[in-house]
Amino acid sequence: MANTAVFLVDRVVPDVPVRQYVLTLPYELRKLVAFKADVLTAVARLFVESVFASYRTRAKRNGVKAPQCGAVNFVQRFGSLNLHVHYHLVALDGVFARDAGGELLFHPAPEPTPEDLDAIVVRSARRVITWLRRHGYLDEQPLEARSNEPAAQTALDACAAIAMGRGNVATMPRDGTEQDDDGHGGHEERPDTPALVVERDGFNLHAGVHIEAGDDLGRERLLRYAARPPLSLERLRRLPGGRVAYRLKYVARGQRGKYRVMAGVEFLARLAAITCPPRYPLTRFAGVLAPRSAWRCEVVPKPRERRNACAPTRTEQPAPAADKADQRKASANGAKARDERGRSAALASSPKDGPGSAGTTRPTTRANDVATSAAALGAPLPGDVIQLAPNHLGKALGSPARGRALRRAAARGLGDAAPPKSLRRRSRMPEVPRPAPGRRCHH
Q1: How crowded is residue 275: how many other Cβ atoms within 10 Å of its Cβ?
Q2: Cα→Cα distances 111→55, 123, 203, Å
Q3: What is the pLDDT of residues 19-57, one digit of tens each?
Q4: I want to staple 232 with a disulfide (CB 3.0 to 4.6 A). Which of 126, 182, 295, 400 is the partner?
Q5: pLDDT tens track for 150-187
Q6: How far apart are CA 77 and CA 224, in angstroms?
Q7: Between 370 and 10, where is the model more confident?
């Protein structure tokens, strides 16, 4: 949610005014759109085309030639833990067009009137019903010719039927840790009906949210609200007896119910219904913001300049040309000194040196261990390791003989020694005698 909103603000949505259009579908159409990907895509496309047609019509009235629109369409399948498919279209509140010199300019659009919204709803509803009738999703037979037998339900259909119901809504005492706002735009009471809302034949359109240009924080909040997840953990409570309560987002005035109380099976059924099926994209781009648009590279915000991590910073200026020879000479001397130390360490760890020879005075290091070579050459003697260890570590190391074995192994550069047989974990299973080589066992 937050990452999607930040990405869209920084890389996709330009710094222009935006307006949100929320289209709610009829109850009979929600289940079909929820589980039919082709129906979902068709309804989303027809809705976006209707909004773009309204913007182009208003722009041509003002003398703008060849206007182009852009929007990001979000599909939400949920309400307050119920199956409720609707669209949140965050559209650029205006059109892009080229002037006489070929420069791309943005022309803001005036606030839509109720007549403009009514034209969008009527156009969307008419085209959606026509598309459903053409593809055979509408049963236009008379009621007398239809069968009275209910259709066989699958498990997913049963979950959808449960999720589309209201369920048990009850009043519960407030929890001390409960917050009024869950971070996704939740409110205590349903707001009054705004002026920019139109409903026709079950299609409801709301366009009252507008963000001005330059308000990056407001644009990010709007996109975060449109891309929010279907479940908020801040509104979820676990009740005794295995029940689950979910706080409703809106509460009508005068209604005391505030929580949807569910059994465990009902809660799982609602989650299964509002979960997005495969190949069901929830974020779609249209117009000049579409991936294959020829104007996208000119419309979207330019990416920030990436500074090379190896480049010198302001406080770390490159060395003058006169000092580069000295740096190369110093690096050559350092490499020569490292080679000498490596040869001396190899001589000190040769097998011909005994435990009491001079080669055991310092631990050895690997030839490629450049970062720790200097530290290892100046490290304390191996005999000091056991003395500096804590008491509980000294007990774990075992007897003094164990400590001497560790010191000899460290002096030879072999690392830690194998633990004695008394400290090894013994298997509880008896060992099965293995057959002699070349002899087969017959059962």
Answers
A1: 13
A2: 11, 19, 21
A3: 999 999 999 899 999 999 999 999 999 999 999 999 999
A4: 182
A5: 778 889 999 999 999 988 888 887 665 555 555 454 44
A6: 16
A7: 10
Torsion from C-alpha of 227, 231, 233, 235, nearest 10 degrees: 110
Give the residue extent of every domain in the chain: 2-138+194-230+275-299, 345-418
Q: How far is CA 267 from CA 74, 184, 242, in A?
A: 25, 21, 10
Burial class for 18, CB neighbours closer than 10 Å (0-12, 13-18, 19+)? buried
pTM beyond 0.85: no
Amino acid type, 208: G
Helix axes 155-163, 27-35, angle to 10 degrees: 140
Task: Show the tokens assigned to 143.
Answer: 């009621």
Q: Which amino acid is at 167?
A: G
Q: Tokens representing 95?
A: 């059109």
Over residues 282-311, the mean pLDDT reads: 85
8 A C-beta contact, residue 382 and residue 364: no
How many residues does the structure list for the chain? 443
